[in-house]
Structures are given as structure tokens and as C-alpha cells.
UniProtKB/TrEMBL annotation:
<feature type="domain" description="G-protein coupled receptors family 1 profile">
    <location>
        <begin position="29"/>
        <end position="279"/>
    </location>
</feature>
<keyword id="KW-0675">Receptor</keyword>
<dbReference type="GO" id="GO:0005886">
    <property type="term" value="C:plasma membrane"/>
</dbReference>
<keyword id="KW-0472">Membrane</keyword>
<feature type="transmembrane region" description="Helical">
    <location>
        <begin position="90"/>
        <end position="111"/>
    </location>
</feature>
<dbReference type="Pfam" id="PF00001">
    <property type="entry name" value="7tm_1"/>
</dbReference>
<dbReference type="InterPro" id="IPR000276">
    <property type="entry name" value="GPCR_Rhodpsn"/>
</dbReference>
<keyword id="KW-1133">Transmembrane helix</keyword>
<keyword id="KW-0807">Transducer</keyword>
<feature type="transmembrane region" description="Helical">
    <location>
        <begin position="50"/>
        <end position="78"/>
    </location>
</feature>
<feature type="transmembrane region" description="Helical">
    <location>
        <begin position="16"/>
        <end position="38"/>
    </location>
</feature>
<dbReference type="InterPro" id="IPR017452">
    <property type="entry name" value="GPCR_Rhodpsn_7TM"/>
</dbReference>
<feature type="transmembrane region" description="Helical">
    <location>
        <begin position="180"/>
        <end position="203"/>
    </location>
</feature>
<protein>
    <recommendedName>
        <fullName>G-protein coupled receptors family 1 profile domain-containing protein</fullName>
    </recommendedName>
</protein>
<feature type="transmembrane region" description="Helical">
    <location>
        <begin position="224"/>
        <end position="245"/>
    </location>
</feature>
<feature type="transmembrane region" description="Helical">
    <location>
        <begin position="131"/>
        <end position="153"/>
    </location>
</feature>
<keyword id="KW-0297">G-protein coupled receptor</keyword>
Length: 286
């Protein structure tokens, strides 16, 4: 059986090297997504492509505020949130805003493809670029307001034992909402459920497009966008569900930090967190 020290070293290596791969690959992939979606006329007129382009920009912000500080903390022992109160609040706020807005774009892109492939014109009218702009601005404003409590309650605390400063939430009620409402619902369970549901419905509609009087160009575009969304949906399920399981296990089981079981769980949790960040790094240009 591996020792606790070995498991901790493996966990550190995963955070550094797998994290670097996610960070560098995610930046390149998301930048390419934005360039492709904004450079081609066909995609510039598509509401689904707009949501995916916006999601790619938000994913870059998430990688900068989520993955990069983790790498710097493990590799160079530089904990920026603990060192600066401004960065403590800024990182927590941007982390919430980018993650919520990114998952919102993914969900509405999946719903948009369901609308676009419906035979009912009543639903198809929502698939236009003007509606996409308005919806994105409204939801972004909602998430901007949603993050205000984070700016208030995410602050520095000093340990009475060793005097070290930590960046953490000081309000117990908001801490419960953050753990259960924000993490387990808004940025994990709810997006997985919505994308899986409407992705399946969009796939069913796409299979029926061949039997409808739909222009060939539009039919192929909708098929291409639906395939992009569906692959993203399947990938999201694979990388987010392990994160949900380990996060819930962390609250339901108390382990002694000096045991091999705790070291194994921390390794599994570290792997699941890195898998979770893969969502923000993966390219949608399949």
C-alpha cells in the first residue's frame, strides 16, 4: 500500500502538471474558438455560436482565476488570495461570475439548438442573434448582482493558533449557500441536468430534420452545431459528476487527516477538481 507521503506527492504532481496542461491547452483552445466563431459569417449570424463564443471568453477568465492560482500555490507556494485582501475578494467574485455565466451559456446553447431544430415556428423565433445578445446581457447582470455577497463575506481571517492569514467566507449562512447552492446546484447538478435533457431533445429533432422541408445549408449548420453541443454535453457529464460525488463525500464523511484513507480521498478529490476544470479548457470545435 502506498504511503501518505507518496500519495501527497502524486497529488501535488497532478495539480502542477495536469493543471499546466489544462491551463495552457484551455487558453489556446478557447482563443481559437473565439476566432473561429467571430471570423466566419455563418457563425456570426447564429445565436448558438454566439453563446459558445461567449462561453469560451468566460472560460478564459475562469482558467485565470481558478487554475492558475492553484498551480502557483502548489508549485511556488504562492497563495495570492491569502497575501492580498483585494485579490482575495477579486478572485472569489470573478470565479463565481465566470463559472455561472459560462454554465449559463452552455445551457442556453443547448436549449437554443432544441429551439432551432423544433418544427414549431413559435420556438424557432427565439433563435436569433438579437435575442441572444439581450439574454446574455440580462443573465450577466443577474450574476454580477449575485456575486455582491461574495465581495462582502469573502475576506481575510487570522488563525489564533499560528497567526496565519486565510482567505475564506466569514458568514456561516452564506458559507452553506456557497457549498450547497452555488457549488452543488448552480455549477454542477443543474447544468448537467439541463444540458443532458435538452441535448437529448435536440438530437431527436436533428434526426427528424431530414424529413422536413428545410434548406440544405441550414440543415447542415444545425447538425454541425448540435453535434458540437452534444459532445460538450457528454464531456460535461463525465468531468462534473466525479466532482459532485467527491464534494458531497467531503461533507458526509469525517476522516482523520493523519490516515491513509484521508490521503487517498484527497488524491481523488484533487483529480476530480482538475477534471472539473477540464470543462473550462475543452474545445467545442469538434
Amino acid at each position: 500500500m502506498p504511503s501518505i507521503e507518496l500519495l501527497n506527492i502524486i497529488s501535488q504532481y497532478i495539480s502542477i502538471y495536469f493543471g499546466l496542461l489544462i491551463f495552457i491547452g484551455g487558453l489556446i483552445g478557447n482563443l481559437l474558438n473565439v476566432l473561429i466563431f467571430l471570423s466566419l459569417q455563418t457563425f456570426r449570424e447564429s445565436s448558438c455560436a454566439f453563446y459558445l463564443a461567449a462561453m469560451s471568453l468566460l472560460n478564459i477568465g475562469q482558467l485565470l482565476t481558478g487554475v492558475l492560482p492553484r498551480i502557483m500555490n502548489v508549485w511556488f507556494a504562492l497563495d495570492w488570495p491569502d497575501a492580498s485582501l483585494i485579490y482575495c475578494k477579486f478572485r472569489a467574485y470573478c470565479f463565481q461570475l465566470c463559472s455561472l455565466a459560462s454554465f449559463t451559456c452552455m445551457c442556453i446553447a443547448t436549449i437554443d439548438q432544441f429551439w432551432a431544430t423544433c418544427s414549431n415556428p413559435r420556438w424557432q423565433r427565439y433563435c436569433n442573434i438579437k435575442f441572444a445578445y439581450r439574454f446574455f446581457l440580462i443573465t450577466s447582470f443577474i450574476w454580477i448582482l449575485h456575486g455582491i455577497p461574495t465581495l462582502i463575506y469573502q475576506t481575510h481571517t487570522k488563525s489564533v493558533v499560528n497567526g496565519t492569514t486565510r482567505c475564506e467566507i466569514i458568514d456561516s449562512t452564506f458559507d452553506k449557500y456557497y457549498n450547497y447552492g452555488f457549488v452543488l446546484v448552480l455549477t454542477s447538478s443543474l447544468p448537467v441536468f439541463l444540458t443532458a435533457l435538452f441535448g437529448s431533445l435536440a438530437y431527436r429533432n436533428v434526426r427528424l430534420l431530414a424529413y422536413r422541408a428545410v434548406p440544405l445549408v441550414r440543415r447542415e449548420l444545425e447538425k454541425q452545431l448540435t453535434v458540437m453541443v452534444l459532445v460538450q454535453v457528454v464531456f460535461n457529464f463525465c468531468v462534473i459528476v466525479p466532482y459532485i460525488i467527491t464534494y458531497m463525500f467531503n461533507f458526509s464523511v469525517n476522516l482523520d487527516i493523519n490516515t491513509i484513507e484521508y490521503a487517498v480521498f484527497q488524491l481523488a478529490r484533487n483529480v476530480s477538481i482538475n477534471f472539473f476544470y477540464l470543462y473550462f479548457a475543452v474545445s467545442v470545435n469538434y
